[in-house]
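writing this on my phone so excuse typos. first protein, seq and then structure
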Amino acid sequence: MVKNKPLKVKIIVPALIVAVIVGIFIMKNMQNSPTEPSIIDSGTDSERNFSLKITSVDLEEVRQYGVPTVIDFGSDSCIPCKQMAPVLETLNSEWQGKAAVQFMDVWEYTEGVDKFPIQVIPTQVFFNADGTPFVPSDSLASKVQFDMYSDKASNEHIFTVHQGGITEEEMRQIFAEMGVE
C-alpha cells in the first residue's frame, strides 16, 4: 500500500526547486551583465573625467559640466558610427578635463533619445561650457552642416546638431570655436 505524500511536501518541494532555478538565473545574469558606465567619473571640478560611453543623458547635468560637450547618438553596429568611434575615443581621451566627448548607443538605450531631435544616426549634439547650445560662426557653418532647433512656444534655441558622420578635423574646428585646443 502506497501512502500519499502530505500536501505540504507536494507544494514546498516544487517551490524550492523553482526558487533555486530562479536564483541561479539571477546570479548568472548579474555576473554577465556589464556595469553601466556613469556619465561623470569622480574628480574635482577642474579635473572631471567624462566617460565616453553613456547610457542616459540628463540635460541639467550636462549644463553643469562646465566644459564644452558633444554627445554622439549612434550605435555600435552602425557603419558610419563605427567609423567615427576612433575619433570619439581619441578626443575623449585627449580632452579630459577640457571637454566632454560622449557616445550613447540609441539602439541599446532607446529611451535616451526621447528629449533630442534625432532623425538619423550618427547625430551629434553640441553644448557650450555654460550648457547653452553651441552656435557656430558663419565661417564654420559654411564648412560643417548644422541644424538649429528652437522651442516652438518660446522660440528659444535649444539644440545645435550635426547629422551624419563627422571627421576629427571638423570636430577639432567645432571645439576650437568653443575654446578647446
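second protein below, same order as before
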Amino acid sequence: MYNKLIEEALKAKKHAYAPYSNFRVGAALIDVDNKIYTGCNIENISFGATCCAERVAIFKAVSQGQKAFKAIVVVSDSKDFTFPCGICRQVMVEFKIPKIIVANFNGQFKEYNLEGLMPYAFDNLNID
C-alpha cells in the first residue's frame, strides 16, 4: 500500500509551486475507502499564505466529504526524510490520521503514528 502512496506523492510533488524556497513537497492521503487524494506545496511571497502539501491533500479530501483516513505519505526533493510541520501535524490530529509515512526520493520510508509525531497535541480531550 505504501509504495502506491509514495508513487502518487512523488507525482504530486511535480506540481508544487515553490518559486521562493525551491523545495517541492508532495503528499498522498488514503481514506478508509482506499481513495487517494494528493497535494503539493503552494508557496506565496507572503510565506504565511503558503500551504503545505499535506494540508492541501487533507483539505481536498475533506472538501469532497471524506473525514476518515488510513494514512498519509510526505515526500520531497531531499535525500533525507521530510517531516510534516507543526501546523500540518495539528491538522492530522484534527482528522485523526493514524499513520504518517515520510519517504525520500529513493522510495525509502519510515512510518509513524500521531502520538509519536505530535505528543500532547491540542485535541478535543483538552477542551473543558
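The mean pLDDT is 94. thats all i got for now
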